[in-house]
Ras-related protein Rab-10 (Steinernema carpocapsae), 199 residues
Amino acid sequence: MAKKQYDLLFKLLLIGDSGVGKTCILYRFSDDAFNTTFISTIGIDFKIKTIELNGKRIKLQIWDTAGQERFHTITTSYYRGAMGIMLVYDITNAKSFENIAKWLRNIDEHASEDVEKMLLGNKCDMADRRVVSKERGEKIAVEHSIRFLETSAKANINIDKAFYDLAEAILDKQPSHSTPDPVKIRPVDTDTPSRGGCC
């Protein structure tokens, strides 16, 4: 049997209005790429990236959801099993910020109770077009006891930090005793047949 390439698998979800930069954030983190052409996500898309965190290899399965209303019935099913959710708004778009309350309600309705949440104010490189102050972002994050960062997929600001911080918060919740046992057992199982068995 092939050895598992990772210790833990975390399912993360990116949600928020259409056009706030969810896909750009995902591609910047997974491929270190930025695409200036906006192509709306149809339904759902996902990427996988394995990171090292506190001596563990963690496979992140990151789901990028469509922001448009017509896809909401598809995307709500992806909340199930999500361990971390990033709510993204665009600092140059007041409506996308106002809708964060609606996205938070969606999480309450469809996600597990202990899901880790993080609020991202994206496009912080566009300071001249800012309509949502950093203070407003911080305020809503404090009200809901969630982490907050301003990011820019284009300028690569806080993208890695956002994913690592969220993964670390999930890792902190994991029962610490769950991994050592199977690791100890495996070598014994694989050794046994190779001792020139008599049967």
